[in-house]
Specification:
Number of strands: 2
Number of helices: 12
Radius of gyration: 16 Å
Strand order of the largest sheet: 1-2
Strand content: under 5%
Oligomer: single chain
Amino acid sequence: MADAVKTYGWEAKPRDPSVILGGKKNIKDPMPQTVASIKLPDSTLAASVLQYAATELSTPTFNHSMRVFYYGKAIHNQQFPEWHFTEETYLLACLLHDIGTTDKNISATKMSFEFYGGILALDLLSKELHAPIEQAESVAEAVFRHQDIGETGMITTIGQLLQLATIFDNMGGHKDLVHEDTIKDVTARYPRNKWSSCFAATIRKENGLKPWAHTTALGEDDFPNGVQNNKLMQPYD
């Protein structure tokens, strides 16, 4: 594809959220958005990956993945509407970003879950579902780097949006990017099911199995504790 960089969200964005936000808490005050107002991609590829994720992921992890899609699209629509990517590509990244955390996959490798998950995503999309390679690689790159939080360098558009949305759902970070009514609507459709304690346990499990895991870069105790003590999402857990 002639413009695969834009189509599949490869354009470079600063990794530091404060840079893309211009040092402010948001670009504009968020307005309520609902699940019904945000169109879910319905292509054959999207439907196949949606079914795969619903089968392979636990219900709490699948619901988290869907919330990340809707929160990310809410952020994109109101804060960064000029960012380019197909909604299908972003949905694929959301559905597959935690595929490495399943009981089967977390114990199948000594690799950190993001990296193994990225490989699984790349193989699924490119070899089994025959997605365009630029799209499959964009999704894999975003999965690899969705916990690559930092203040230096660059990241892809899809990668940055995935980071913003996962941090929002997992830790209540960047709370001024999404309206409270959007949270209420999204969690009503995709309940958290005590996600804070669930994901904190997954982090601790991986760190116990793999003390070299990339997740430890976020703080061996600080990260799981921050997830478990997510004040923003506490009323919905």
